[in-house]
Amino acid sequence: MVNKQNTYLSFGEKVAYAAGDVAVNFFFKFFQFFLFYYYTDSVGLSAGVVGSIFLVSRLLDMVTDPAMGAIADRTRSRWGSYRPYLLFIAIPYGICGYLMFLNPQLSMEGKLIYAFITYSLMMLAFTAINIPYASLSGVMTPFSSERTALSGYRFVGAFSGGLLLTLLIRPLVKVLGVEDEAEGFRLTMALFAVISILLFWVTFFFCKERIKPAPQQKSTIRNDFSSLLKNRPWQLLTLSYIVHGMYFTIHGAVTLHFFKYWIGDDSTAILGPFDLSTLFLATSLLFSIIGASLTKFFCAYIDKRMLVILAALVNCIIMVAFYFIKDSNLPLLFVLQAINGIAVGFIPVLQWSMYADTADYGEYKYQHRNTGVIFSAALFGLKLGLAIGGALAGWVLAAFGFIGNIEQDAQSKLGILLCFSLIPALLALIKIFIMVFYPLRDKTMEKIELALIERKGELHAPSQ
């Protein structure tokens, strides 16, 4: 029988795992909240071109993401299958992140090419380190409830990293760049790159892999993707996460534009180093930390699938409310952002825990475990949602006549408002519809866990 006590995770190991997502979100949250603004208002690229960069660069991920998952699944080392990548890819990850913000003095065509190449390289490094990082959660413990707790710690780290980035990015850009915003971004992101490297190493040194595929499993690429394509829970979960990525990105991409062109965000004299857009984004992330922290508690009473549906419903209602509030009631805008932040905090905790459930389901149903491929495809879905959301924001703003750093007319302001409110509301509604059909319930997972433990017997962790 399995020694269950050895498969429950210590507080220290959970915190060490969360450190990795702090590192991830120093860049990922920048991509969601600031990168669109950086390319349009600091570099000077057009909104439509930026949207196209985001989408076209994702074509490479169609190959690299599943390939990375398959490679990680087949890696055998003294540290396990997934941890080595946290050690060796951390430095390239930091360097690629820094290169995105060099902003060399090139022609507009040269800046476009440079942006596309460096963004694509960063996404490649992001794939190489984040797929093993995400997959690690699926092999640290065999219990779904414990993975949910681990996922809670992870996203407290993720939202904390995003909160730190959001609070510090604008003040640091102003202080380090003085009058040169692009130079401020370069120096600020160099600092975050160094911190990210160190945090990934914390995860490497203090986390362990405990779950291995069954010895008799035949790990071929064909088997990996055959079992994946038959895994209906994974398919629905990935589709819902693509939509969630679109929702979160299109709203986040235009938040700075909303405050700059709708609210008139020139309030630094009152708010010190922070402007309203910074505080608005920070409000969401602060309350997302609360939501992520509470997820484990609510899971004791409500099925994970239903919690996702309820959270998405809150997202939908609040996005509709934003459309009608506009700039008429700033305090109410912040209150609703806080409530929305709590709901946003639930979703990634639940869904990444559910991805590990789909890996268990695939092993139970088809006698084939492909944790890395499961999580690589999940990450591709999230990045695809990020890309489509960013592309939609760019294309909608371009269609409504938006041009950065000028006074916006009523039509271009309407485009910003739609991306900030009603379009995300529609996407949240679509997510609810998808999750209604998700078949795995918590009670089902309890039965699957016990069946897999009995089938595989004792679990063996790597020696170091």
From TrEMBL:
UniProtKB keywords: Membrane, Transmembrane, Transmembrane helix
Domain of life the protein comes from: Bacteria
Transmembrane segments: 45-63, 84-101, 113-134, 155-173, 185-207, 236-259, 279-299, 306-325, 331-352, 373-403, 415-438
Pfam families for the chain: MFS_2 (PF13347)
Keyword Nucleotide-binding among UniProt keywords: no
Gene3D superfamilies: MFS general substrate transporter like domains
Entry-linked SUPFAM superfamilies: MFS general substrate transporter
NCBIfam families reported in the protein's UniProt record: gph
Family that this chain belongs to: Belongs to the sodium:galactoside symporter (TC 2.A.2) family.
The protein's name in its UniProt record: MFS transporter
Organism: Paraglaciecola aquimarina
Upper taxonomic lineage: Bacteria, Pseudomonadati, Pseudomonadota, Gammaproteobacteria, Alteromonadales
